[in-house]
Amino acid sequence: MTLTATAKPDAPRPPAPPQPSAAHRTWRKLTPYAYVAPFFTLFAAFGLFPLIYTAFVSLYRVELQTPGDMQWRGLDNYTALFGDEIFWTALRNTFTIGVLSTVPQLVMALGLAHLLNYRLRGRTFLRTAMLLPYATSVAAATLVFAQLFGRDFGLINYAIGLVGIDPVDWQTGTVSSQIAVSTIVIWRWTGYNALIYLAGMQSIPSELYEAAEMDGASRWRQFFHVTLPGLRPTIVFTVVVSTIGATQLFGEPLLFEGSTSGGISHQYQTLGLYMYEQGWGFFHLGRAAAIAWVMFLLILVLVGVNALIARRRYRKEAGR
Predict the structure, then answer these.
(1) Measured between alpha carbons, how far is residue 83 from residues 7, 72, 154, 285 in Å?
(2) What string of DSSP letters covers 227-282?
(3) Its domain of life (predicted)?
């Protein structure tokens, strides 16, 4: 018997996948940009264009009554601004109120976050209550605090009178008015920053605390050697955001007494109030635009200094 081997017929090859057309390939490349286009469109319309146009207006003499009549001044708005004594007063007030409000605010927020990080009874309610001052309208909060700091019938003067301290005129004194405005800022933003710190604390690995406890570290040592190093990026973030907010402070000093001058002698007038007074009080839109750009550059400098300090400290500790 002879066996004849028959060759298997070749299996049919699967058809080649259809090649996408040039239009389809172009669409696949452009799709990611289409997803992010709405953000950049809104940013260009409401962020970039106003910034550039404000710089353009700051080089002209523009009055609010006749915004179409623009006269070229070059840098005269800036030179007039730097020669104005009230501008330097507003700049100094912005710095002092910023320090008086930011430093206690962040220290208190850090302490509150540290307490809320423990397993307390009703901690969910306490965390929610932390956001109530932030959710309160700045107008309502400032008007209430203006009554509390009243000279004749204010609750603050009544309380300090119980311990033998004479009543303080919180609206006319330089230091007292700045403390009063800073108190409003502290009340509104402490809880907000506390929740940010709390979120940062909960992201720190629990193994670090367990190892520190096994080494005999107390709660305070754990806080300084475990919590604070782990919170460094969060602290830098809150410092930068608080610095920006302090530079742009407007609502609290405006509503504290109800005037754009920031008191009789401009004792608590900030740069935001000074810009508003020049633009909508004296109708000098060109001068107001120059103030806005000075504030923008000041914020860039302050944020850059904060970032530089944080980076140097990080490199110094990393090199140990």
Answers:
(1) 100, 19, 39, 18
(2) IHHHTHHHHHHHHHHHHHHHHT--HHHHHHHS-TTSSTT-TT--HHHHHHIIIIIS
(3) Bacteria
For 5-9, 82-86, 311-315, which range has the lowest pLDDT when averaged over its residues? 5-9
C-alpha torsion sign, points 19, 23, 26, 30: negative
Q: What tens digit of pLDDT does each residue of 215-226 get?
A: 888 888 888 888
Cα–Cα distance between 21 and 295 in angstroms, integer? 52
Write out the residue range of the structural domain in which residue 271 sits: 86-318
Query: Do 260 and 28 contact (CB within 8 A), yes or no?
Result: no
Residue 1 counted as domain residue: no
Backbone angles phi, psi at 262, to 5 degrees: 65, 45
Asked if residue 31 is part of any domain, the answer here is: no
33-37 contacts at long range (C-beta below 8 A, 24 or more positions apart):
none
The tokens of 156 are what? 């603050």
Number of separate domains in the chain = 1
